[in-house]
């Protein structure tokens, strides 16, 4: 009884007092660690290769195990949190993330590092949707929630951009394992804080968790992401190891959707996608991440291989993008009230497309002012788009499916990143490789190897030496810059398509509470008590019943039940 009382007191404080901003701080630190870990290893890959001597396939799995596992399990753990408690899933994720970080830091074989990265993915999949679904519970009023989501999305951008900078610094001064060791003290500090401060919440489901459906979703997403990643590294779409996962993933997801439609208490109410605001927001997240990750990957190669910058200098050059994203997140709530979701997402895409077109002026010479301006516009535009898309998606989803909705958003984020690498990487390769077919005076095997990537072209040219080596190196640099320009133009076109898609979003965002009936799939045998004026039901731990939170916070919480039928 005392545990329930304490949890209820925490939830009341979080929903109606200053403590909710402390809760947001804990959630943002959680997200920051996961976001940093997604990119911190990238600059450590050469040091890992030199130390552990992995094969090409093992190195690929060292890099990909984390995002693959994390993306595939987001819906599984997001919907599990709706059933057993989002705070509980988050705390278990903390423990797994810390343990996996220790295992990765002291790995002495590629196999152990791959296993540790996979376990990190499990922990990340437990943490990411839980932070966003708890955020929705703690901030039931839409205007405040918009501010909180702005901070949350800015932290995600900061984490992704800070990873290479932090990783570059640590690798230059310490062992590569230090990129994982930094997680351990932070997790050790945040675990008791989270247990003490974070409120527990559930979706109010009484039926069993659909284990088979959760596994179908996990397998389907894993297949899609794996197939997309193989496309991104140049494999043919007709290759059995590429087409097989893609087809199997698509089939499993179709079966998952059919299963959810037939269940009385689905993991995810797929009717959410019938709401234009929800489905369009998900699509915009995919498009925004497609542009961001694909462009960042190419930009890192440009800064290091064309301009000759080191890992730390490369990370520092990308910092303007991070600061611009922070500014967009900090001002996002006010911008949303001024412009509304439709214009905010649309103009965010247009601004990003303008930044991409500006960056086509990049050449083989360093132009810091141009790069800084382009990265600032890129960061501000993309973060504006992501903020408005996440806010619309989360506000349109019913509160009982908050974990599932958050997982859909995070899965869209991961899929967009994978598709961006595959699509823009393929465009880059298609524009880069043909130049070597016409190269006279260079052996055929050297031309074929150089056509794979600019880094490999440098290695081959160094081996050849003399005039042939210099010709190969010069051709590779010119071809890379040409491919970069083509890729930027394609990216700008996709971003403008995103601006057109944003026309399906509502013109304005209502900040007042909107009462929407629960989905018809809810069982009639366990009706929720009808809240009186100024009250709303909230689930607390160790109890299958609802307690009521009085006052303005309780009245505002009725809005959290909003769905795609909200009148804008």
UniProtKB/TrEMBL annotation:
Entry GO terms, CC: plasma membrane
Subcellular localization(s) per the UniProt record: Cell membrane
GO MF term (any one): transmembrane transporter activity
Domain Major facilitator superfamily (MFS) profile, first and last residues per copy: 23-510
Xref: Pfam families: MFS_1
Region Disordered, annotated ranges: 519-568
Key word Ribosomal protein present: no
Membrane-traversing stretches: 21-47, 59-77, 89-107, 113-135, 147-170, 176-197, 209-228, 240-257, 277-298, 318-338, 345-363, 369-390, 480-503
PANTHER family reported in the protein's UniProt record: MAJOR FACILITATOR SUPERFAMILY MULTIDRUG TRANSPORTER MFSC, METHYL VIOLOGEN RESISTANCE PROTEIN SMVA
Protein name (Swiss-Prot/TrEMBL): Multidrug efflux protein
Annotated organism of origin: Streptomyces clavuligerus
Lineage: Bacteria, Bacillati, Actinomycetota, Actinomycetes, Kitasatosporales
